[in-house]
Specification:
Length: about 260
């Protein structure tokens, strides 16, 4: 792999001049700039991102920390984040906490060590160490779905009320009246807050009753069907089950 020193020797300039051409940190004559750029292309020289970040205090990298990227909802979010970052010249480091505050804190430390320029965070839980890191580091943070207590950062929430409404309306419009709701773990604020939403939708659409099934302990794909099965074998026998619905699912139900 070619080095900056080799580029400078081939172009007949100093190493600092090559650095100024690469980083646009000083005015360089067009003739010298063209000659240096030609040697860079000829040798296929790739500048060190680490060295550039030390010089500019910018890595053009954002961190994305989610509970589980295999979750279809998070997978779609990650796709859009990556696309938006790429269009603006940023790279992305993706970390999975898998629902654990300890692992989340470890990845937060790793991302801070990488000197990321920003963080997109879907919190998996609270932890004293991570709280100190997030408050002490001057890194822009955007929280998705779950707000950490006391963290002064922007928060973006999905339209869960609208999702619950559309999902319940779809079940009622197809003839179901006894509807079950399988929400998320009780320790997640968004899951706790969602208990009344399907009931509100049911009131609008005249369902006979809404069953609140057992809350899964963790957000895993098999947890929803397991909770639904338990609800069916109990004396409550819903004829329609509504799991937490995201925007994409709602669009499938009612594309209009």
């Amino acid at each position: 792999m070619a080095t900056m020193k080799q580029v400078a020797q081939r172009a007949g300039v100093s190493i600092s001049t090559v650095s100024h051409v690469i980083n646009n940190t000083r005015v360089v004559s067009s003739d010298v700039r063209q000659r240096v750029q030609g040697v860079i292309d000829e040798l296929r020289y790739i500048p060190s991102a680490v060295a550039r970040s030390l010089k500019n205090d910018k890595t053009n990298t954002i961190g994305v920390l989610v509970p589980n990227s295999s979750n279809p909802y998070f997978a779609e979010l990650i796709r859009w984040i990556e696309e938006a970052a790429f269009q603006r010249g940023y790279n992305m480091i993706l970390c999975n906490a898998h629902g654990g505050a300890r692992k989340q804190a470890a990845y937060l430390r790793l991302l801070m060590e990488k000197r990321i320029d920003g963080l997109v965070l879907v919190a998996s839980g609270a932890d004293d160490e991570q709280d100190l890191m997030l408050r002490d580091e001057a890194v822009p943070i955007v929280q998705l779905e779950r707000a950490l207590p006391g963290l002064d950062a922007d928060l973006v929430l999905a339209g869960q009320e609208e999702g619950a409404y559309q999902a319940t309306r779809h079940l009622i419009d197809t003839g179901h009246r006894a509807i079950a709701c399988v929400s998320g773990p009780a320790d997640l604020p968004r899951a706790r807050d969602g208990g009344g939403r399907p009931a509100g939708a049911a009131g609008t659409h005249r369902a006979r009753r809404i069953h609140q099934c057992r809350r899964p302990r963790r957000l895993r794909a098999p947890a929803g069907p397991a909770a639904s099965a338990e609800c069916r074998v109990r004396d409550q026998r819903p004829d329609g089950a509504r799991r937490p619905v995201r925007g994409r699912a709602c669009r499938r139900l009612h594309p209009g």
